[in-house]
Amino acid sequence: MTRAYPSCPSPHPVSAADPDLFRAAAGSFLTGVAIATVIPPGGQPCGITVNSFTAVSLDPPLVLFCVGRSSRRFDAFDQARSFAVNILSSSQHRHAAVFASQAQDKFAGIEWTSGPTGSPLLPKSLASFDCVLHEKIEAGDHIVLIGRVLDLRRTPGAPLGYFRGGYIDCVAPDMVSEEPMRASRKAGSPAQPDVAGEAGSARSGC
Length: 206
Description:
By secondary structure, this protein is mostly beta strands. The protein is built from 3 helices and 13 strands. The chain starts with 18 loop residues before the first helix and ends in a 23-residue tail after the last strand.
């Protein structure tokens, strides 16, 4: 038996002409914040702040994130055969802002080390996944990069979150209090991650 439900017109019809509405609605989903990094052949390290990270598979171990075609670092990731994803802790607000900005050298003053694939890993991140490209999917104005994890690192700490245009400090399970989350957005608009998807010694990079 098929049950018929009355149609309910949407108060906000989705249209390609209204990307701000779609972005705002998508931003209602609380996420973590990550920095995806890559070193192009013969180039300097590149990175972008993203909040599209997710685990895909345990066997084989796969993760994914998205990169917008409008990103200045798009070509570096589009051509990448390997990359890393660094999950940010609540102490890495500056990293998130820098890698979401238009700064020419995002790695200036940022400590990083090379993973097994050569991709930059950021110390003090809650977790870092060093990956080789498993699959690349064309998806509208983004590409979806699926990586097979070759190496990972994990560090205790509290995560950095992102919600409706602002960064959120979250408390780890072993640090739970009566205020499990507190907004950390300051006056003005912070540099934002790619919300559809779009961070050894200090070294320079793009």
